[in-house]
Amino acid sequence: MSRAGRIRSETVAAGKAFLRRRTAVFFTFFFPAIIILIFGALVNTAGGTGGLFTEPPGYYVPGYLAVVVLFTPLSRVGSEVARHREDNRFEKLATTPLRRWEWLAAQTLVNVGIIGVAAAGILLLVVAVTGASIVFSPLLVPFVVLGVALFCGLGAILGSLSDSSDGVIAASNGIALPLLFLSETFVPQSLLPEWLPLWVSPLTYFSRGVRAVAYEPPDTLATSQVPGGLGVAESNLLVLAALTLAFFVVGAVTLPRTD
Amino acid sequence: MVISASDVRRSYGETVALDGVSLDIDAGEIYGLIGPNGAGKTTLVRALTGTTDPEGEVRLLGEDPKRADPQRLGLLPQEFSPPARLTAREVVSYYGGLYDESRDVGETLVDVGLTDSGNTYYEDLSGGQKRRVCVATTLVNDPDVLFLDEPTTGIDPQGRRDVWGLIDALADAGATVLVTTHYMEEAERLCDRVGLLAGGRLVAEGPPAALVAEHGGRPRVEIRADDSDHAREVLAAADYAFVPDERRLVVDDVAPDEVGDVATTLTDAGVAYDGLLWRQPDLEEVYLQLTGQTVGASGTPREVGDE
């Protein structure tokens, strides 16, 4: 069995194990849907005079996507690591040919599949509920894939450092919630203190890139250039790719092998 | 040697789990590690498989355990649980898919006695069936070296015999097996050699029969009497010797044809008794002699004299 075969076997098992936990599957799709309904229909985001949730609906697309790209892999992979450790599965896997990075790659593939479907549903729901004008660019795909992989890596780190499933959930919520609102997702940089280093959050590059790709502001060009000739989308994609590689490698290395 | 360890030590904080353990296991051998919970069995398995980092030297298939060819290894950890929402067949298929070559999943399930439960979710299986599935995940790559950490815990007697048969067959085919257990009869029935672990130390090692002959003492009779003090006085007056045991009255060195003499002595003195239990010494006696502890069916260590 090749490396691809091992990853396929792990991916199939992890995918089935997740899809058969109906509550987890339901809330993976329900959570972003309820966020869209709250912000899009109840709060009724719209272009206005400034303040929170007053940008045009399309501005918030990165935020809606971030709900699944950030929360799901972080909590799911973190919990999976904790569950594997509690059930002594890593101890067994350590004596099989499956490498740690192959295990994390399989978990990432499962998350990419699930979140890819959820992201497509989110985009359609945003259009239906808010009437947002979205550019369905193919560049959205690498942003979602890299974002998911990045937070799978971070989830693996959290799971490895936490001593229980409960600890993973608490830690992932404690990290994800600030990131969600301090990464130019729902709250523009102009509404936040200047000293706040939004560049520290990896989600910022996802948010900026997705916005550059999918949102056309009424009075500016969506693909403005940055020094060096790269577009905003491409430059953020490159940063996101580099961060994804770093988080994935660190996540794989920290996965438990010994007691 | 397929497996060797030299002066292996491992501590967790103040707790010493392994204290200078050395052993060598040959190809095709079934080696049993015996001891109660906390004796160091699981830590030793982890040291030998590279899933803990001990002091001392460990070699597995001639390599550092972390470099040993995983295609040739099979490990059943203690308290291992695969994904709950996979069927038994899917669990075995999943682990089989991690190797270059694997056995037929259906045949492997049949081998562990799961002919009708292949399509049942793991979480819906009984405790014994779950353990059989776990054993199957260890056999699915047809390994040359197996580490089975309490493989039959929770399995019914028939299932236990099935697993013994499997292990026998694997060893007959040339596999090397290290099995931990707190079931003494399992070790005696299954193992070519056993190592007795207590407090992280290997206190004795050898074929079960040789250990029993050397350390187990002589055949004995346990007497169950309401007034055991009176029974002890009567038998002592008749020059019978006793096995040191504060909980039970056990007469030492009683051959099978001498059991009637013990009964007659008690009856003639008017001592009422509920039963006389004659037995050969076994590994339990060996463990008791060497460590002052009994293992007990649950694996919980018990000092002699404890109630």
From TrEMBL, chain A:
It comes from Halosegnis rubeus. The lineage of its organism: Archaea, Methanobacteriati, Methanobacteriota, Stenosarchaea group, Halobacteria. It holds the Pfam family ABC2_membrane. It is a multi-pass membrane protein. One of its GO terms (molecular function) is ABC-type transporter activity. It is found in: Membrane. The keyword Membrane applies. Residues 23-258 form the ABC transmembrane type-2 domain. PANTHER family: ABC-TYPE MULTIDRUG TRANSPORT SYSTEM, PERMEASE COMPONENT (PTHR43229:SF6), NODULATION PROTEIN J (PTHR43229). This is ABC transporter permease. Keywords: Membrane, Transmembrane, Transmembrane helix. The chain crosses the membrane at residues 24-43, 63-82, 103-127, 139-161, 168-187, 237-255. GO terms for cellular component: ATP-binding cassette (ABC) transporter complex. InterPro entries: ABC2_TM, ABC2_TM_bact-type, ABC_2_transport, Nod_factor_ABC_transporter. It comes from the Archaea.
Automatic annotation (TrEMBL), chain B:
PROSITE patterns: ABC_TRANSPORTER_1 (PS00211), ABC_TRANSPORTER_2 (PS50893). One of its GO terms (molecular function) is ATP hydrolysis activity. The keyword Lipid metabolism does not apply. Belongs to the ABC transporter superfamily. This is ATP-binding cassette domain-containing protein. Residues 3-224 form the ABC transporter domain. CDD domains: ABC_DR_subfamily_A. The keyword rRNA-binding does not apply. Keywords: ATP-binding, Nucleotide-binding, Transport. SMART domains: AAA. Coiled coil: none annotated. It comes from Halosegnis rubeus.
